[in-house]
Protein 1
Amino acid sequence: MTANMRQRSTAEKHRATVMLTAVKAFAERGYYGTSTSDVAQAAGISQSYLYRLFPNKETLFAALIDHCSARLREAVAVAAATMEGADPERTLRALATAYDAAGGERDALMVLMHAVCSAGEPMIGESVRGCYVDHVEYIREVSGASNEQIHRCFAHALLGNLAPAVGGGSFGTP
C-alpha cells in the first residue's frame, strides 16, 4: 500500500468522524454559534488538520448538510422500498411516517433547520437548495404524487421539524 493510499484512507476516516461529531455541535449551536475549534476538539483532531480536511467552515457545514440530508433520505428510502401499489397518497403517508420516525435523527433535523437560517452564506444556500430539490425529486419519483400532494407532504414535514426545534411536542397531523 502506498503512503498516498494510507493518507487518503486516514483522511476519509477523519472526515467521517468529523461529520459524526459536527452534527452534534452544529445541531446545538448552529452555524454561527459553532467554531471550527469546537468541531476539531469534538472530533479529536487539531484545528489545522480540520482545515486540511475542509478548507473553511462554510465548506465543512455544506458537507454536513449533504451528510444529514443523506441520513434522512436513507430513513425514507427504507419505507419506500417496502411500498407496494401505486397509490400516491398511501405512499406519501408511509414516507411521512418514516420521516416522523426518524426522530432519532433529531440532530440531523436540527442541522438542516440551522442550515435554512444560514442559507444567506453562498455555499450553504446552494447546499440547502440542493438538499430540498433532491428530496422533492426523490419523493416525486417513488410516490408518483402530484405537485400539490408533494407540497402538502413537505409542509407537514417542515412543520414537524419545527416542533422539536422550539422544544414543543407535536403540531398534529393534517
Protein 2
Amino acid sequence: MPSFVFSEAERSALEQFEGGPCAVIAPVQAFLLKNILFNTEGSNWKDISEEEQRTVLCSTLSEILESACLNKTQAFHLATLPRAKITDSSDITDSHPEPESSQPTDTPTALAAEELGFERFHSIIQKRSLRTVAELKEAVLSLYDTWKNKFGVLLFLYSVILTKGIENIKNEIEDTSEPLIDPVYGHGSQSLINLLVTGHAVSNVWDELRGIHQQASVGFLTLMESLRYCKVGAFLKSPKFPIWILGSETHLSVFFSKEMALVAPESPSEQARRVFQTFDPEDNGFIPDTLLEDVMKALDLVSEPD
C-alpha cells in the first residue's frame, strides 16, 4: 500500500512506486507545489528542509479536506489507525493491558503498519471527527508519520470521502454505477480527480452544467481532448495558479511554472467563448437561436427579446 514519500533527488516531489495511485498523489503534488511556490516565503522548491516538507504536506492535505467539506458548519473526518502497544516488531495488539515484564510502549499503529495485512487494516480503522479548521490542521499535522507510512495515501483518501460524505458524492457523480477507482486496473476516475482538485465529485471537466463550478486553484488538461473525447473548460485550463495535472491514457503527471502571466484573468473575448461553450458542450461551434437570449444574459449584455 502506498504512502506519501518525498524524493531524495527532488525534495519537493512525491514519489510513486510501481503502479501507484496517481489519481490521489498527483492532485496532492499539484497543491503541494502551489503552497511551496506561492505560499511559502523564501523557500527554495528544489531543496526544502525536512521540517518544511512536514509543514507543507500537512497544510496541503488539510486544504484538500477543507475544500471537500460541503458545509463548513459540518465536521471534518479523518480515517486513522488506533494507538497500540507494541512489544516487538511481530506483536501488534489493540491497546490491551500487557504484562509488566514486556515493557510495552504506546506507539501509533501506523508506525508498524508494515505488519498489518489488508483485512486487519480495515478491521481496526477508526473515524476521528473535528469541528473546526484549526482542529483539523492540528490533527493532520500530528498524523504526519501516518501519512508517510504504509496505508497513508489510502487513509487520506478515506478521510476525503468521509468528510465529503458518501451520499454527497453519489449526488454529484453523473453515473452512480461508476466507481471512484477501477476495480480491475486501479485507475482513479475523473470524479475522484475532480473531488480532490475542486472539492466536487463531478464527472465532467467542462464549465458549469454538471461540470466544474468555478475557477480551480490548480488546473487539469488531458490528452483525451486532443482526440476529441472531451472538452476541458476554462475553469480547469486557466486555474488561479500556473500548475496543471496532465492526464494521459494511463497516468497523471504534474507540470508547473512560477510565471503568473500564464494564468492572467480572462479577457472579454475569452469570457464570451467560455460562456458560449457552456451552451455548446459538444463543441459544434453553433447553438440554436433560441439560446441566444440566455447567452447574452450570462454575459450581462443587452438581452431584450426584440
